[in-house]
Amino acid sequence: MLKFIHKLNEKAGAAAGWLAAILILLISYDVTVRKFFNHSSIAIQELEWHIFAVIFLLGAAFTLKRDRHVRVDVFYHNFTPKKKAWINLLGCLLFLLPFCSIILITSWKFVSTSFLIHETSPNPGGLPARFILKAFLPVGFILLLLQGVALLVESIQEIRRA
User: Fold this and answer.
1) First vs last Cα of the chain: how many Å apart?
2) C-alpha angle 139/65/48, rounded to 5°?
3) Which of 16, 62, 145, 155 could disulfide-link to 58, CB 3.0 to 4.6 Å?
């Protein structure tokens, strides 16, 4: 199970990396066209922030897996592996897993309503399928929840080893 979660989030991280490269190209195109041809596109600008949102949602679990997430690291880096495991265990139980669960529960209606009405951009010339972007909200938090469960299990294993 842990191998599956890790492999899944490695693939999500790779997808986020490719999307970051695409986003760089897209922004470069947008800036060039705006600067030299005095033309701007609402759809391109919306696509930029849609891709950025997907990168963030797919990359969150990947960064947790790689232990590259943001943390107040004043003391943590000096702790023993057992103390780190306890902090990770408590952080998962008290914060990460409940937060992911709340987001998943509360976003369900938000996302399903968007699909039901085939939500589009409210801006003239905007993207036609905003509901696709919103579908990444539960996907990203499911990935993060799964990685949190993996971290929880690995923390318990580390505590038992020590």
Assistant:
1) 23
2) 50
3) 16
Instruction: Report the distance separating Cα 147 and Cα 140, nearest Å.
Output: 11
Amino acid at 154: E
Residue 122: both structure tokens together: 């409210």
CA distance 151 to 65: 8
Distance of CA 69 to the CA centre of its chain: 11
Helical residues (DSSP H) of the chain, grouped into ranges? 2-37, 42-65, 81-91, 97-116, 130-161
Burial of 38: CB neighbours in 10 Å, binned 0-12, 13-18, 19+ = exposed
d(CA 157, CA 82): 10
